[in-house]
Amino acid sequence: xxxxxxxTYLIKKNPSSLVYYNDAYLYIKGLFNRDVMRAMxxxxxxxxxxxxxxxxxxxxxxxxxxxxxxxxxVLVLETPYSLDSYFQALEYxxxxxxxxxxxxxxxxxxxxxxxxxxxxxxKLDELFLSCPPRIGKTTLMLFLxxxxxxxxxxxxNLYGSFSGVVASAFYKGVIEIITDEYTYTWKxxxxxxxxxxxxxxxxxxxxxxxxxxxxxxxxxxxxxxxTLNGAVDCSGILIGDDLVSGFEEAINQIRxxxxxxxxxxxxxxxxxxxxxxxxxxxxWSINDPIGKRIKVLTEEPAFKNRRYKVIDKPALNEKDxxxxxxxxxxxxxxxxxxxxxxxxxxxxDMASWSAVYMSSPIERSGQLFNKDALMxxxxxxxxxxxxxxIIAPCDVAWxxxxxxxxxxxxxxxxxINSRNYDVYVPAVVFDYGDxxxxxxxxxxxxxxxxxxxxxxxxxSRGDEYGQDVNEILKSKGYPINITDKPAPTTxxxxxxxxQCSSDIKLHFHFLSAPYRNKDYAMxxxxxxxxxxxxxNKQKDDAPDSLAQGVDMLRPQNNPVGSYSIFAxxx
Length: 570
Known about the structure:
Layout: H1 3-13, H2 18-31, H3 36-54, H4 61-78, H5 83-90, H6 101-119, E1 126-130, H7 137-151, E2 157-161, H8 164-179, H9 186-189, E3 201-202, E4 207-208, E5 219-223, E6 237-241, H10 247-250, H11 253-267, E7 276-281, H12 289-299, E8 308-312, H13 334-346, H14 350-357, E9 375-377, E10 389-394, E11 404-407, E12 409-413, E13 421-425, E14 428-431, H15 435-449, E15 453-457, H16 462-475, E16 481-485, H17 493-507, E17 508-511, H18 518-528, H19 541-553
Parallel strand pairs: 1-7, 1-8, 2-5, 2-6, 6-7, 9-17, 10-15, 13-17, 15-16
Antiparallel strand pairs: 3-4, 4-5, 10-12, 11-14, 12-13
Helix pairs in contact: 1-2, 1-3, 2-3, 2-4, 3-4, 4-5, 5-6, 7-8, 13-14, 15-16, 17-19
């Protein structure tokens, strides 16, 4: 049993004895000079002990107050190595319902860990974060900059946005955090960091210095239209925050190119090679600065060793539930986002929903499907005649970000002209889960809707997936024709979807919004979000399954015989 284990044993045995808490704290403090990883592990264990004992009703309130101070002191010890600990320590004495970070911690911790990889552990050179408006991304950046100013005030940091007003607001936010001792604990965390608001900052030029006045300031905030050359340098953290002003600029390709030119030629050139770059924003277009930069890093061989990470946090997750339903009602509920989506769909602007709220920008010029271009029904299938056939194409996925997409298709033929047909889609499976979850759902879809033919694409191991579904149906005594077919090799997936889009618009009927379940709503969102100009990385599961269904209906895939005229051989 080493020293720390002995101390934790003594704390558990004597939870009201503060001397053991202090000894454990001092031990961890010394351990940080020798073994950071071991010190972090011990710090976490001590905090857990303190939190548990703080809840103990048998411990006196005065002792609990001192235990709470131990937690704060341990968080401060961790600050150079943990943004998560710093963010908690920064607002430690505020009522939790008034804090920014702790009510949002559960949902934003993955972002904070990525920021640590960028600025603490040197695992990344650039980090990209795209998410909906007003979820707290800019405040996270405020906390990050104030951490940097306390940890290493000698380096210079730069924040840029589309507007000088936004940049000025960010600058004022930094000043507030490092000077407001009632709300924040910045001075307690960094007692040796010197900052005089009278002589070490300039609100007109939005810069400040910590430690000493410098030519290249500890922190500067500017719009991308502001003066940068010769006035700004960045050796620490470069933050590009919402560099596109909004919808009007996003739909104007010339203005987008102008923005990118400013970013590439002025803003990023302020960063030294050692600087860390953080891009955050609400995505408006695949050609916004975030999209352009990701494309450069992905496609240019010169950047093959550049370490970067992209975090897209959409409003709704793969279960169609809010990603930002924070504690204490400071976030956005699932209902709020579902209503927002319904509003965008009602006005036929799912492109904006996809870009602004789902972090999946598409180009409106290439949007194939929108609300007004499709036909709908209320769930009641035609009663006057039986369906010609009931089929279901299944776009297979195995989890990992792609969805299984399987729409039910009731096909009705015109008795006079067989080339005229209508397809009703009363139900779908649209699920991002693994096969253990999705295969039973596809099988249940067949049972519920009497599907006669179920087709999978062989290229994505659809034959294997289909065999498993077939076994489930066999066990339930349901006969069905299950086929697998390779995807066309003479045409790209995008071209096939484009070619089939007119058939989908002319012949297919989809459920109206009030009659859709969760799978159906996500299916339609995926369909509306598809763009012919969106490239190969966009989500195409819904339109791809529909295109597969169109192929199943075309005459060449349903041969009824052929004939030819030739001369008599005798």
